[in-house]
Amino acid sequence: MDVIEIKGLRVVGHHGVFDFEKADGQTFVIDATLDVDLSAASRSDDLDDTVNYGVLAETLADAVASTRFDLIERLAGHLLDLIMADPRVAGAQVRIAKPDAPVAADLDEVAVCLRRRRA
Question: Which residue in 16, 35, 96, 98 is the catalytic one?
Answer without folding.
Answer: 98
